[in-house]
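Q: Can I see a sequence and its folded structure?
A: Here is a first one.
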Amino acid sequence: MLSELASWIGISIVDLITIAVITVVVIVLMITFALSVKPRKFKPVSTRQYNAELFKRRMELEELSYPMLNEVKIGGGKAGPTKIDQVMRLPASILLIVSSPPDVVGTPRCSQNAGQWKYVKPDHSVGAFLNPVVQLHPLISAIRSRFPLVRVRVLCVFPRTAEFGSRPPRGCCTPDNMTSIIREMAAEDGVPNQAMDAAWESISAALGQKSSSQSQGGDALPEKKRGKRAKP
C-alpha cells in the first residue's frame, strides 16, 4: 500500500515515511504550543483558607524565637488603618511583615521604585496595591528619626499561588521560603547591639499599646516627653 501511494505521488517509500514522521512531529508541537499558551485556570483562595494560612504563618514565626508583635494597626483617615501582620525584632533591625492581597496569581510586578505593585487575579484581570515600603513610610521614618542606628526592613508575604521563579525579589516571599529569608536577614544583622535594646522597648510599647487607637489617627510612635517648664 505504501509503495502504491509512493508511486502515485512520485516519491520513494523512504521519502514518504520521512514526510509522514515530520508531519506527526509538527502536529504534536502545534498541540503542545496551543496548550501552553492557553490561560491557566486558578481557583480563588477562600476566606477560610486564607485565615488558616495566616495562623500557620504566625506559628512558624513564633518558632523563630524572636520578640514579635502581632496584628498591629497604625494610621487611619479615609483609607482606614494600615495593618502590619507582625513586627519582629531581629538582632540589629526591626522587621515589618505584611501580606499581599490573597488573590495574587502568577508573577507579580514588584519594583522597589514603583509606588504600586501590580498582579494578575484568578479571573485574569489586573490588580494593584501600594508598595509596602511606601505604605509604611510614615512608621519607617518615625523609627529612623528616633533610632537612627536601627535598620528597618519590610517583608511582604505573597500566597502560594504567586510565582517568583528561583528566588523572589528583595522584600518579597511566599510562605514556603518566609522563615529562610528571615534567617538570612538575622544572619546579616550579626550580633545584637545596645541600640536595639532601647529601640525595641520603646517601639514595642508604643505599637502594642497604641495599635487600637491608631485607627482613629495619631502618630505611630509617641514623641519624647518634654520636661515641665519651671514656674517663675
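Q: Show me another, different protein.
A: A second, unrelated one:
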Amino acid sequence: MADLDGSQLLVALFALILVSGIVQSLSGFGFALLSAPLLAATIGGPQAISTILITGTACDIAILAMRRSVPRPDTREVLTLAGWSAPGMLAGAWLLAALPAVGLQVFVAATVIAAVVLRLRARARQGIVSGRWAIPAGLLSGAFSTSTSLGGPPTVYYLVHRGLKPHTMRDTLVTLSLVRLPLSVISLLVAGVWETYAYWPVLIVAALLGQHLGTQAFHRFGHARYEHIVLALLTAAALVSVAAIILR
C-alpha cells in the first residue's frame, strides 16, 4: 500500500472507512479495530488517530440519529467508563508521541489480536461481573483510545459481562465514544500529536454511507446473529492488522 499515489490512496481509504462504518453500525464498535491498522500503515499514527476520531464520530452520531426508536444507553455505565478513561487517555497520548512508527504498528496488531482472544473468552464465560471492573476497563480503554484508537475491546469485554441486550450495548458503546471525544482531542493536543489527513471530509461521506448500509443489515439480522457478527469482525480485524505489518 506504500506504492499508492494520492488518488489511489484516497480511493482505498474511502473503501476502508466505508466497510468500517458498516462494522460500527452492526456492533456499536469495531470502526477503529478494522481501520486503524491500515490507516497507521499508510498515513501514520497521528493522522490515523485523528481520522478515526473524526469519521468515527460522524458515524456514531448518525447511528443514534437514525435509530427507529429512542436510543437507550446505560447511562451509569457510560459515565463510569468515561470518568475512568480520562487518566488513561493522557497516558495513551504520551505513548503515541513516544513510540516509533513500527513500534506503534506492532502495538496496534497486538491490541487487535488480544481483542479477539478476549471476545472468545467472553463467549466461553458468560455471567455478570461487578461494576468495579469498570475501573480497569475504563483506564485501559482510554489508554488504547488515544495511542491506537482501539479503545473498544476493554469496554466491550466488560459490558458483555454486564448482561446488556444487543441494542442497549450498541447504544452504550456509541454514546461512550461521543462522551469521550472531547477528552481524546484535548489529550492529543496536550501531547502535541494532533494531525489531520487532508481529505478527511471525503472520508466522512464514506463513514456515513457505511453507517446507512450497516444499519439496514443490523435491522435485518442484528438480533439473531449479533454475537457471531462481532466475533467474525474481530477475527477479520486481527488478520488485517498482521497483513498491515507484513505489507509495510
